[in-house]
User: Fold this.
Amino acid sequence: MEDLSHFVNGTHVKGASGRYADVFNPATGEVQARVPLASKDEVDAIIAKAAEAQPAWAATNPQRRARVLMEFVRLLNRDMDKLAEALSREHGKTLPDAKGDVQRGLEVVEFCIGAPHLLKGEFTDSAGPGIDMYSMRQALGVVAGITPFNFPAMIPMWKFAPAIACGNAFILKPSERDPSVPLMLAELMKEAGLPDGILQVVNGDKEAVDAILDNDTVQAVGFVGSTPIASYIYSRATANGKRCQCFGGAKNHMIIMPDADMDQAADALIGAGYGAAGERCMAISVAVPVGDATADALVEKLVPRIEKLKVGPYTAGDDVDYGPVVTAAAKENILRLVQSGVDQGAELVVDGRNFNLQGYEDGFFVGPHLFDRVTRDMDIYKTEIFGPVLSQVRAQTYEEALSYAMDHEYGNGTAIFTRDGDTARDFASRINIGMVGINVPIPVPLAYHTFGGWKKSGFGDLNQHGPDAFRFYTRTKTVTSRWPSGLKEGGEFHFKQMD
Ligand code: NAD
Assistant:
């Protein structure tokens, strides 16, 4: 069994705390590695080393910093297959999906190559008599990111690429469930030319996270994960005077209007509801058809599609739609919630509870589920299940459908399927949710826009990636300058005649 490490000052460092967590292959249920869980002392020492390296990096001109990212992009493409395989082996998602995970991170790195432009400040000529005023964006120093298991390549890159492009040193605390790809990314950043100490990967659990939150050197913390932890980290980090942005859980609704193309809507729901076993913060977990006829038509379209879904290990290549969930505990939690749905009176139209995959009996596979007639008071409606479970709630009017999405405590993503521009426009304008799809089920903004949810899905002021990331990872300094007059009086105002 492999013993993983931390990545400190450009090299792999064994854990010293004596505490470890098991890393599973979710397809087989086997423990394939141990990841060290850092102690507070280890974390503090790693942060101190980053602080030593950071000033020289901040003083490196932004174009040279961007060149490291350019090379990193080349290396990501070179190692795409290797990264995807390692990712699938620990996470369980299919290989095409794992490549998508790397790709969506890579695109943010590409955006960050524009750092020299994005970091340009502002200038006012002659703000007063002989006075100029300019603002510059400066790196914060040492910053940290705490990331979830479900996108072990993309989300670390969303965090460290802009932070490092801005001249910060970055402490990455990835999920302890799939830490190998984050370690590989750090190796590639070194190979791309990043100086040692600028990207440190520290593995760990709550102890390591708390050490980051309480360390005075750390200036800013970015988090992605579940809402209770997001809320906890936001409170503790901001109480300690840090800049903080935390992105949490989701319950994304898709509204299907009676005029929508039902085949398109059903296809969209299959991908958005069951892709990656539902372990996406932008997954659609609630379908809200408007009118019983729409609801009945949708179920009729969904059921045969769900029955055709191929669930299997990533090693099956393209021949699988989604893989196992990440741990046995995740599987148990999903099945517990499904049972609560049955007990609370929802209609289980497709029952995936007895799903079994020959040869993979110990893997963490969960069959697809479809619930109909789900109501607001049910746990399966209120809770983020994070599994292959789609719930249908029936709304009689557009306003009622809208109210489902509006009233839910989460506000990450949402979508509407309709052929009517007026309805779509009204929806986009009124909905209190951060990312909206119109006939697009998973409206993840591209790298040059920003990503972030509202309500209990996001804590803090700025979004991830896009221009907001450059605001989050820098602070503004404004200089007012006046030079004493008089020097120019003694100056020469005419071209000298050449002798
Ligand atoms: P999680 O909250 O369990 O873990 C996230 C990170 O927090 C990990 O690094 C983990 O080690 C750390 N952590 C866990 N418990 C902690 C504690 N008690 N104290 C301090 N740190 C702790 O989340 P997860 O299960 O890894 O990821 C799934 C969740 O992430 C889902 O809720 C999903 O919706 C959410 N997510 C949100 C977004 C978004 O952009 N909004 C994106 C991806 C995932």
